[in-house]
Amino acid sequence: MNAGDSVKVTASDFGFYKDIEAWAKATGNSVTDNQIQGDKVVATVQKGANQPVTTQVATGGSTITTTSEGTTIVVFDGNFDKAIASLIIAQGAAAMGQPVTMFFTFWGLSVIKKPGVKVHKRGLAKAFDSVLPSSAGKLPLSKMNFLGAGRSMIKNLMHSNNVDQLEVMLQKAQDAGVKMVACTMSMGLMGFEETEFIDGVEFGGVATYLGDARQRSTNLFI
């Protein structure tokens, strides 16, 4: 699109009514029309001439334009609902053109485990493996889990409301250029191997996280 060109966007989430205004302001664009029409939000966005300072980042066969601001998220918790929250924030920041780093540590490592991977383990590593979720789809809810029934209920609600499942969110976040880092210290303590994690995950310690965090304007701990 060229400066001055417009595009009409329709969304079923009423939060979009305010979100599109915030996104446009952050990315140097403008909303020329924004209305709630029945059960939809319909907005018209005009591409701005004065865009924020950006950097082109190649990822997954496409190019992502990023601003000088950014977000880092420490994912410490291994619960289904909190993983969803962290990924929604990450995708939102990426959509605003921000570089995003997600640093998965301790219980949060379960969020990025690859389904179906079996690794022979012994001792405490085997004990951890037997009690921790095997993949993102097996994470418990932080409240009202009911032995997994609560998670199934939330998954059904997500499906009926056209919300991506957690596994799809992970892939879309990576496609949007979100950098995912598994904490190597936590991996060592809990007996995780690199082969147990989804493709595209990087591996690093606290210095890797802090190196990104000091360059970002927003840092979150979930």
UniProtKB/TrEMBL annotation:
SUPFAM superfamilies: DsrEFH-like, SirA-like. InterPro entries: DsrE2-like, DsrEFH-like, TusA-like_sf. This is Uncharacterized protein. It comes from Paucilactobacillus suebicus DSM 5007 = KCTC 3549.
